[in-house]
Structures are given as structure tokens and as C-alpha cells.
Amino acid sequence: MISLGQERLWFLQRLDPSDAAYRVAVVRRLRGTLDVEALTGAFADVVERHESLRTRFPDQDGLPVAVVDPPGPVPVELMAFERPAPEGPVLDQPVLDQPVLDEVARLLGERVNAPFDLASAPPLRITLVRLADDDHVLCVVLHHIIGDGWSLNVLMNDLAAFYLARTEGAPVSLPGLPVRYAEYADAQRLHDAGADIGYWTGRLAGATPLELPTDRPRPA
């Protein structure tokens, strides 16, 4: 079962799949040595922990349903833009040219704005750009149907914890999740089906029916 907010976002996505208004993204510049394999594994750990990040939304008889995929490897697109080899001492190594940074920004912009197919796969897109051995850019994009700005903060914090666990053997000190999003959606639906309908039925009891003008045909 999906929440009322997810159902609304699903409808808006079907109405205009090219609309980028409901895509949420974070881009981080990562300085220093990066273990790409550990980072990819850490993403898998985060997605296993948060089942919303592995949920897709096909339709069933014209209505959306939530399908949670099992944990597994998470696709991470890898791109590389190399600095030119230094000709002098390391301190004289040239920085990245602005055209290279502009091209990276353009490519990441394409990935942020690219539409999601909510039915076929969880709407999560990860790109890692290698600028040098000690310089990377990480771009994480998700559809608003599975997260928001606050969710991205949680995702990045959990990612850091799992990355440290994989690279330094540090224990993962993350609290257990008190509730699954599917449980929240179920509770919301039950509340709306009971209390809210009962409230408005009582409030509108005995109300005079609204008379709408029918002097000419109206559009659908």
C-alpha cells in the first residue's frame, strides 16, 4: 500500500513524465583518497536498510502499488575526467580547466533532469565522476515519491557510516528503524477510511445539496 502523498506524486509523474519538479538531488565534491568499491557497497547497505530506496511503483488495474525489491547491488554510474599529467613538481600540477568542470556540470544536470520510470525500477540514480585519484564528484538523484530533502541528509549520513565500516572496520552505530514507510502508509489509509470520513459525514449531515447551473452544456 502507498501513502496518499505517493499516490499524488505517481499521478503527476504519469501526467507529465518529463517534469523535473519532483526530482531531488544532492551533489558532493569528495576530496582525498576514495575506495570506490567500498562506496558502492555502502550504497547497497543503505538501500538494504531503507526499503523505500528499493521500491518501485507499477500500476494494477490503473492504480499504483508499491513493490519492494529485495536487497542487492546498487548500480553506480562511473565517469572519468582526468587532469593532464604534471610537467613539473607536484605543487605545480594544474587544476582542472573550467571547460572540464562545465562539462561535468552539464552531464550531471542531464542525470538530475532525466525522467524516472517508476514502474520498472526504484527511482534512484547514482553517478560518481572521477576527476583525479583524490578528487571525485558524487551525484545522487531520487524521485520525491521515495524521499525529500530531509531524506537525503539521512541517506548521506548513513552512507558515511557504512563507508567507514567498510574501509576502517568501524562498527555501524545506527539506531534501528522504528517504523517502515509501508506501515505508515497503511496507518494513514486506515485513518482516512475511518475517522476523516466519519467526521465529514457528521459535519455535512442535513446540508442543503448544492445547486449547480445547468443552463448550457459544460466541458468534461
Structure explained in plain terms:
- 39% of the residues lie in helices and 18% in strands.
- The chain is of the alpha+beta class and 220 residues long.
- It has a single domain (4-84, 95-202), classed as Chloramphenicol Acetyltransferase (2-Layer Sandwich), CATH 3.30.559.10.
- The chain has a four-stranded mixed β-sheet with strand order 1-8-7-6, covered by helices on one side. Strands 2-5 form a two-stranded antiparallel sheet. A two-stranded antiparallel ribbon has the order 3-4.
- Helix 3 links the parallel strand 6 (77-80) and strand 7 (124-132).
- Helix 2 (36-49) crosses helix 4 (149-168).
Mean pLDDT, rounded to whole units? 88
**What topology, given as strand order, has the largest sheet?**
1-8-7-6
How would the global form be characterised?
elongated
Largest sheet: 4 strands, mixed
Global Rg: 23 Å
Write a brief caption for the model.
Helices cover about 40% and strands about 20% of the residues. With about 220 residues, the chain is α+β, with helices and mostly antiparallel strands.
What secondary-structure arrangement, pairings included, does this model have?
Blueprint: H1 4-15, E1 23-31, H2 36-49, E2 55-56, E3 59-60, E4 63-64, E5 67-68, E6 77-80, H3 98-113, E7 124-132, E8 135-143, H4 149-168, H5 181-203
Parallel strand pairs: 6-7
Antiparallel strand pairs: 1-8, 2-5, 3-4, 7-8
Name the descriptors.
alpha+beta, four-stranded mixed β-sheet, two-stranded antiparallel ribbon, 220 residues, Chloramphenicol Acetyltransferase, 8 strands
